[in-house]
Amino acid sequence: MYKLNCILVSSVSTVCRQLAASVNASGSSLCGGTALQRTVCSSAVRLQEAASSTEARKTSSKDFSIFPPMPGYDSSLRWGGRKFEELPIVHVKATYNNTHIQLTESGGQSLVRTSCGTEGFKNIKKSTPVAAQTAGISAAAKASEKGVTFVRVVIKGIGPGRWSAIQGLTMGGLHVVSITDNTPVPHNGCRPRKARRT
Amino acid sequence: MSRHLRFISRTVMVQDLNVEQAYKTLTRLLTQDGIIETVKLKRYYEKPCRERQRRSFETCRRIYSTEMGRKMTFISRKTREDPWLGC
To answer: Which residues cross the membrane (chain B) (predicted)?
Structure first.
């Protein structure tokens, strides 16, 4: 129940941040926006004020937000002539023993599939960040042959190759547009295996 | 199959090819929301007795660290009026 509340609060806080961002972006001035923000939860207020102050300090011409463009709303952002929803997706599954990388179109058709095993690593060497980086580089090379430049990344799992796979993709020449975390979090579903005693 | 819209939550856009900054932002948001900790805890099953022990330990640690933090900020105050004025 406590964990359910945690996950609810986290989802509510992210949704509140997005609502505050959309409210702020809809053209209200800063003093008008703060009155609205008081009704939203406090973490969203702190994040939004920090974001707005840093943005005002850096460049007033660039309005970059860490939130992706919502599917219903039009945004003028285009990458290689494509909208955000049409960009190909790189799925990175970072388990504790291996890292899989698969590049798919936005519809779901698979283009490139690499993993630490296909790169020639065996057994324990697959569960290293170096192996994930080589897998990322080879995946990026194969993708560039097929003509893919801009890409969204979806990460699943926490493992040794979580960050180095994206690093390999960037080193291989792919342009990463956004990073999503799709780690499966059960709301107390299946019972996991018993605790290890070492 | 997926019950939620994709690419809405737990997503961070990358600014000016700064993938490292975006990844750091993402991990900071995830740890603040407690997702990384939940994933680590749920890797193996935690028996109810162990869960109760862990919760009480976390409560005690939270109380102790807040009290210690308050004590340190109180002791490290330097700008006070002189208590021994005139001596």
So the answer is: none
Put simply, the answer to whether B8 touches A11 (Cβ < 8 Å) is no
Q: How many CB atoms lie within 10 A of CB A29?
A: 8
Task: Name which residue leads in pLDDT, A62 or A67.
Answer: A67
Greater confidence (B60 vs A8) lies with: B60
Tell me the pLDDT tens digit for each residue of B7-60: 988 999 999 889 999 999 999 999 999 999 999 999 999 999 999 999 999 999
A8 touches chain B (CB under 8 A): no
The predicted complex's ipTM stands at 0.80
Inform me whether the C-beta atom of residue A124 falls under 8 Å from chain B C-beta atoms: no
Whether A30 and chain B come into contact, CB under 8 Å, resolves to: no
Angstrom CA distances, B20 to A34, B24, B25, stand at 31, 6, 9
Coil vs helix vs strand at A102: strand
Secondary structure of residue A183 in the 3-state scheme: coil
Do B43 and A196 contact (CB within 8 A), yes or no?
no
CB A24 within 8 A of CB A45: no
Mutation target among B11, B37, B40, B59 for the A interface, most CBs of A within 10 A: B11
Among A6, A180, A187, A196, the strongest candidate for a mutation testing the B interface, having the largest count of B CBs within 10 A, is: A180
